[in-house]
């Protein structure tokens, strides 16, 4: 599984974060800063979704192609745990 597309997105997010830091240093209007923070959160969630989707279509799907029931069960447990963690925020 490759995440090269996500590196591009993360680099863009990194630039947005630098911009937000500059806004804070310049004491810009709080609502403008919050708007930019919301944009970054949305972008991070998009990266997260893409990586999870790739994991399900790649790693999890491959485990179901094998005959190892324990491995399949472990993958399901892994996905359930990840989804539980995502719900915390």
List the helices and strands and how they pair.
Layout: H1 4-25, H2 30-65, H3 69-86
Description:
The protein is mostly helical. The two termini are 26 Å apart. The mean pLDDT is 91.
Features:
about 90 residues, mainly alpha, about 85% helix, elongated
Brief characterization of the structure:
The chain is an all-alpha fold and 89 residues long. The chain has helices at residues 4-25, 30-65, 69-86.
Summarize the helix and strand pattern as letters: HHH
From the N-terminal CA to the C-terminal CA, the straight-line distance is 26 Å
The whole-angstrom Rg is 18 Å
- Structural class category: mainly alpha
Task: Give the % helix.
Answer: over 70%
**Strand proportion:** under 5%
Count of DSSP H/I helices: 3
The largest sheet, given as strand count, sense and whether it forms a barrel, is: none
The low-confidence parts are: none
Q: How many β-strand runs?
A: 0
Mean pLDDT: 91
């Amino acid at each position: 599984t490759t995440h090269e597309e996500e590196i591009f997105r993360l680099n863009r997010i990194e630039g947005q974060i630098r911009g937000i830091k500059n806004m804070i240093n310049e004491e810009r209007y709080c609502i403008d800063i919050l708007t930019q923070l919301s944009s970054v959160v949305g972008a991070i969630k998009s990266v997260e979704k893409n990586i999870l989707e790739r994991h399900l279509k790649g790693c999890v799907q491959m485990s179901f192609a094998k005959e190892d029931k324990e491995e399949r069960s472990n993958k399901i447990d892994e996905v359930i745990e990840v989804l539980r963690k995502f719900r915390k925020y």
